Amino acid sequence: MSQVIEYSEKVMDHFKNPRNVGEIENASGVGTVGNAKCGDIMRIYLDIDENQVIKDCKFKTFGCGAAVATSSMATEMVIGKTVNEALLVTNKAVMEALDGLPPVKVHCSLLAEEAIHAALWDYAEKNNITIEGLKPPVKDIEESDKIDEE
Ligand code: FES
User: Fold this and answer.
1) Is 108 marked active-site?
2) How deeply is 22 buried, as exposed, middle or buried, from its count of CB atoms within 10 A (0-12, 13-18, 19+)?
3) How far is the centre of ligand 1, averaged over its atoms, from the C-alpha of 137 (Å)?
4) Which of 15, 56, 87, 133 lies at a CB distance of 3.0 to 4.6 Å from 47, suitable for a disulfide?
5) Rounded CA gap, 15 and 36, in Å?
6) Is the pTM of this model over 0.85?
7) Which is nearest to 75 in space by CA: 33, 124, 111?
């Protein structure tokens, strides 16, 4: 039996007009994660200045509409934040900012969060710094302990 999935207006807006799609040349950090459930992939690029402030963030994805919308919103939310503040941009915060996602699409929102974390990890490694509270990146979000939709 098929089920019609309803999205909020904000999700539809970010899906139809995604913000910050693309790449950053010589990015300060790049993170790529996959989603074993659906095979979708997300890559995030961060441009971080000497004060550890995120100046720019872009994304590229082979992902579904929910992955596009959550990444678009997540990039908007991390720009202007410090690397520490960016850790507070969780998939839950992004979903709230989008007025929610249907439960079957929650795993899609993790792609953006995990890719941002992976990009921050890359930045920290390149600069030999530690970002408090940042865990090593997962390659695949099925390894993540954050999915509890079943
Ligand atoms: Fe793959 Fe949404 S179905 S990220």
Assistant:
1) yes
2) exposed
3) 19
4) 56
5) 22
6) yes
7) 111
